[in-house]
Amino acid sequence: MIPYLLKRIGYGFLVLLGVVILVFFLFSLAGVDPARMTLGQRADLATIENVRKEFNLDLPLYRQFQLYLNDISPVSLHNASDPEARNFLDPEKYLYRSLVSVGAQTLVIKRPYLRRSFQTRRDVTELLLERIPNTLVLAVSAMILATVVGILLGVLAAVNHNTPLDQASVALSVLGISFPSYFSAVVFQLVFAYLLVDLTGLNLTGDLFVSDPLTGKETLVLKNLLLPAIVLGIRPIAVIVQLTRSSMLDVLTLDYVRTARAKGLGERAVLFRHALRNALNPVLTAISGWFAELLAGAFFVEVIFDYKGLGFETVEALKKFDFPVLMGAILFAATIFVAINILVDILYSFLDPRVSVKQP
Q1: Is 235 in contact with 181 (CB distance < 8 Å)?
Q2: CB within 8 Å of 134: residues ≥ 6 apart
Q3: How far lies 137's CA from each of 16, 128, 218, 293, in Å?
Q4: Measured between alpha carbons, how far is 191 from 280 in angstroms, rounded to an integer?
Q5: Rounded CA gap, 52 and 64, in Å?
Q6: How far apart are CA 360 and CA 356, in angstroms?
Q7: pLDDT of 1
Q8: pLDDT in tens, the chain (360 residues)
Q9: Burial bucket for residue 215 (CB in 10 Å: 0-12, 13-18, 19+)
Q10: Exposed/middle/buried for 59, CB within 10 Å: 0-12, 13-18, 19+?
C-alpha cells in the first residue's frame, strides 16, 4: 500500500509540474504586460519599471519560471547570495523550516507561496481561501444531489428494465447530458427566478453570503445555493443514471445474485447489499471525476449566477490577466484532481476485493 501511494504521489507531482509549465509559458505568449494592466495606460515608465521589478517581470523568462517554481514548491533551494532572489525566505511571505544549509545555499520545507495579485496586491492564498468554501459548499451540494438521485434512478431503471420507467429514465438522462451547464443555468434562471419568482422567491443572481451595505454583516442565504446546485447536478445525474443502470443490469445476471435470491434474501437486501455494492466501481469513477471538476470551479455557472466562488475568481483573473491568481486557482484545481484520483484508487480496494492496490 505505502509503495503504491508514494508512486501515485510522485506521478501527481509530475502532473502538477506539467500544469505549471504549460500555463506559465502559455501566459507568457499572450503578449500582455501585467505591469501596464495593473497601472493602466497613463502610468509613467518609471512606475511601470518599478512594478515589473517587484513582480520579477524584468528578468528573463527562464529566470522568472525558476523563481516561480521555487516559490510554489513545498521543498525549495534558496541561494542567499543570489541578487535576483528578492523574496529569499521573507517571513511575511513564507512559512518555512530550514533543513540543510551549505554556505549560501539553504534547503527548506515550506508552505507554497503563490505570490500576490497583480491587481489587488493581496496574498493569492488568502484570496483563494475566501472563495474556496463557497465553491466547496456548491460542489458538495450538487454532488450529493447527483449521487442520490442518479443511483436511485439507475437502480429503478435496471430493476424495471424495458418498462416505461426505464425508458423515461434513459430519455431524461440523455436530455440532461445534452445540455451544457451555461444553457441550463439561463433556462433555470428564466423559469424559476423570473417567470415563477412569485412562487419560488428565488433570486436571479446572488452569493451564498450577502453583506449588509450599512453594517457589513454577512448573512447566509441558502436559497441562492439552490439553482446553481441543481444546474451543476444535472449532467452528473445523467451520467450516474446511465452507469448505474448499465452496471446493475450486468451484475443482476451473475451467479452470486441468483444464489442470494435462492437463499431467501429479500429483494432489497439482494439489490443494495450485494448487487449495488459490486456495481459501484464505474459509478464511483464518475462521481469522483465530476466532484473534482465541480470542486475545481464551475466557471460558467458561478459567473451566470454571480456566485463568488473559485470559478468566478478564476474568470475575473483571466479577464484582467492577473497571473498569480489564475495560476493559483489552476494549481488548486489540478491538486484536487490528483488527490481525488488517488483516494478513489484506495476506495476501490474496499468496495471490490478483486481490486488490489498492492504492487505486483
Answers
A1: yes
A2: 207, 208, 209, 307, 308, 309, 310
A3: 25, 15, 16, 14
A4: 35
A5: 11
A6: 9
A7: 67
A8: 677 778 888 888 899 999 999 988 888 887 777 777 777 667 778 888 887 887 778 888 888 898 888 888 888 877 766 665 555 556 666 677 778 877 777 788 888 888 888 888 888 999 999 998 999 899 999 999 999 999 999 999 988 888 998 899 888 888 888 888 889 999 999 999 999 999 999 999 988 888 777 777 888 888 999 999 999 999 899 999 999 999 888 888 877 777 877 777 777 777 877 788 778 877 877 787 787 778 765 788 999 999 999 889 988 888 888 888 989 998 988 888 888 888 877 776 665 555 555 544
A9: exposed
A10: middle
Beta bridge partners of 106: 78, 101
Hey, what amino acid is at 327? M
Axis-axis angle for helices 323-351, 124-159 (nearest 10): 40
| Cell (9 digits) for 304 | 451566470
Please name the residues in contact with 184: beta carbons below 8 A apart, sequence gap of 6 or more.
231, 234
Partner residues linked to 123 by β-bridges: 116
Q: CA 39 to CA 59: how far, in whole Å? A: 19
Burial class (CB in 10 A: 0-12, 13-18, 19+), 79: middle
Cell of 8: 501515485
- Give the 3-state secondary structure percentages of the chain, helix then strand then coil, rounded to 5: 65, 5, 25
The pTM assigned to this predicted structure is 0.82
| Distant-in-sequence, close-in-space partners of 139: CB < 8 Å, separation ≥ 6 | 232, 291, 294, 295, 298
* Cβ-based neighbours of 359, under 8 Å, separated by 6 or more: 3, 4, 7
The full DSSP string for 325-339 is: HHHHHHHHHHHHHHH
| Angle of the 276-296 helix axis to the 323-351 helix axis, nearest 10 | 170
